[in-house]
Design brief:
123 residues, mainly alpha, 80% helix
Length: 123
C-alpha cells in the first residue's frame, strides 16, 4: 500500500469534522438520555457527513452503491469498536465526557484503513 500523505491529511480533516459532530451531538444528547443512546445518535449523525466528505474530499472518488455499502460495513465494525471501548472506559470509571476522547484515539487509525479500502478497492 503506497502512502499518500495528502490523503492522510484530508482524512484527518474529515475525521476532525466528523468527530466534532459526533462529540457535539453526543454531549447534547447525553444531557437528556442515556450515554449509549446519545453516543449512538452522535455516531449516526456524523456517519452521513463522513461518507460524503470521505468520498468527495478525502479519496476523490464518485459515490456508488458498492462504496456506500463498503463504507457502512467498515463503519459497523467501527461502531462496534466504539461501543465496546466506550463501555469499557465507562466501566473503568472514566467519565462520560472523557471516555469518547479515549475511544477516538484508538479507533480513528483503524478506521482510516477500513475506509480507505472501501473507497479505493471497491468499484
Amino acid at each position: 500500500m503506497n502512502i499518500d500523505w495528502r490523503e492522510i491529511v484530508r482524512f484527518g480533516i474529515v475525521g476532525v469534522v466528523a468527530t466534532a459532530i459526533h462529540y457535539g451531538v453526543y454531549l447534547l444528547c447525553q444531557l437528556v438520555m442515556g450515554a449509549n443512546i446519545a453516543y449512538t445518535i452522535g455516531w449516526l449523525v456524523s456517519l452521513g457527513c463522513n461518507f460524503v466528505l470521505s468520498a468527495r474530499f478525502t479519496f476523490r472518488q464518485h459515490m456508488s452503491v458498492s462504496r456506500a455499502g463498503g463504507f457502512v460495513a467498515s463503519h459497523v465494525v467501527n461502531y462496534l469498536m466504539h461501543m465496546g471501548l466506550f463501555n469499557l472506559f465507562l466501566w473503568l470509571g472514566i467519565g462520560q465526557v472523557y471516555a469518547p476522547l479515549l475511544v477516538y484515539c484508538i479507533v480513528i487509525p483503524i478506521n482510516f484503513i477500513l475506509v480507505r479500502f472501501a473507497f479505493t478497492k471497491l468499484p
